[in-house]
Design a protein that fits this description.
By secondary structure, the protein is mostly helical. 64% of the residues lie in helices and 4% in strands. The protein contains 19 helices and four strands. A hairpin with a 6-residue loop joins strand 3 (219-223) and strand 4 (230-232). The model has no long low-confidence stretch (mean pLDDT 94).
Length: 395
């Protein structure tokens, strides 16, 4: 297959992928708070995914002038500057001006990898979030400020040090500013901390969000870009949300981008119960059916934790993605298949070596899926990976 791109189109795609691959580094930026099972510290990529999920769950509480799609876009992008500038825990003293300058320089470099139109849009989105002046930015900031406290309070084991940080944050720190911006979520968080009765509908949303935290412990076959460890399904979900946002110009036709991003947000949630199944594993038809049955059972349980209206809405999005019949779902499926490929290439084959994968298998298992939703994207990706398979004599 010969790559047939106009030089400008090829340069654009190269720039988009340079950004997307650089963004993978966010998975190595550790935060001060731990995942709920206390296995390790959370990283900023999976935090971004989990914050976006909280925003979706809290959307019914948002004012009419809050644009949820804009909020989710802000939360996808908001911590990318930490790749260069690092995370700054709220309980450690920092010079705000130094942080501001470091993050501005990071934003200029990282978003500057992109074509100008996307770079300008992403920079404007990040700056809007940081300024916290619009209704959507205030909503997004409220989510970002309260998510770490909610994560601490949802852990089965409470750490005294963390509770002290949460206490200071809720009563005196930046989270205290949210009581007038997003009073419902602030009051819910405060009631959890003070062990008081909480709103029962919020309890349902919170139960789902806490269960979703377990996705950060589901390991995939594909490594992260630096090859240091396997990717987990929480950070993968964030990355494919970013892919969907960045590669929208590759969609084969008109799609609903905000719905595609919602599909990426939710698509792997069933792995909390059913686990991940590598696409290149030797799986029998019986095992494939058993995995499908396990995922449907997981969807019933997990989405069933939500209030009825949100269960119907979010389960419907997940079902549409799984069916892969609508243009939006086909685009989302394409993005989900595209993301791991260059990770494996960067790691001298990654899971391709583990499963003795041939290029012909990539064509059918990956290429066909990408082509259905992003017909011009697969030739670009294939041209990048083909030399590796030729060198391995694995055609």
């Amino acid at each position: 297959m010969t790559l047939k791109y106009d030089p400008k189109d090829l340069a654009r795609l190269n720039a988009q992928f340079a950004f997307l691959l650089d963004a993978d580094k966010l998975k190595t930026v550790d935060r001060a708070n731990q995942v709920m099972d206390r296995a390790r510290f959370e990283n900023s990529a999976e935090h971004s995914w989990h914050a976006a999920l909280l925003a979706v769950l809290c959307a019914p509480l948002a004012d009419a002038d809050v644009d949820l799609a804009r909020v989710i876009e802000m939360l996808i992008l908001h911590d990318i500057v930490e790749i260069d500038a690092g995370d700054h825990p709220i309980h450690i003293m920092h010079n705000p001006k130094d942080i501001e300058l470091a993050e501005q320089a990071a934003a200029a470099r990282i978003y500057g990898l992109l074509p100008d139109d996307i770079a300008d849009h992403y920079l404007a989105t990040w700056r809007e979030f940081e300024a916290m002046q619009t209704p959507s930015a205030r909503f997004a900031k409220s989510i970002d400020f309260l998510a770490p406290a909610l994560q601490c309070l949802g852990a089965p084991v409470q750490l005294d040090e963390e509770r002290e940080i949460v206490e200071r944050n809720l009563y005196q720190g930046r989270a205290s500013k949210i009581k007038d911006v997003f009073p419902e979520l602030y009051e819910f968080t405060l009631a959890l901390f003070e062990v008081r009765a909480t709103d029962p509908v919020m309890d349902q949303r919170y139960a789902f969000w806490c269960e979703a935290d377990r996705l950060k412990g589901i390991l995939r076959a594909t490594p992260i870009m630096d090859g240091s460890r396997p990717e987990n399904s929480g950070e993968h979900s964030w990355h494919v949300m970013l892919y969907a946002l960045t590669l929208i110009d590759q969609a084969g036709g008109p799609i609903d981008l905000s719905r595609a991003i919602m599909m990426m947000l939710l698509h792997d949630i069933v792995e909390v119960d059913a686990g991940d199944t590598p696409i290149h594993g030797a799986v029998t038809a019986e095992a494939q059916q058993a995995q499908l049955d396990a995922e449907l059972k997981a969807a019933d349980r997990l989405f069933g934790l939500l209030p009825v209206d949100q269960c119907t809405q979010l389960r419907g999005i997940w079902d549409e993605f799984e069916a892969a019949q609508t243009p939006t779902a086909l685009y989302a499926k394409s993005i989900d298949r595209a993301q791991p490929v260059l990770h494996n290439l960067a790691n001298d084959g990654g899971s391709w070596r583990d499963y003795d994968v041939k290029l012909s298998q990539i064509e059918t298992r990956v290429g066909d899926k990408i082509t259905r939703g992003c017909p011009a994207l697969w030739p670009f990706i294939r041209a990048r990976i083909e030399p590796w398979f030729i060198a391995q004599e694995a055609l």
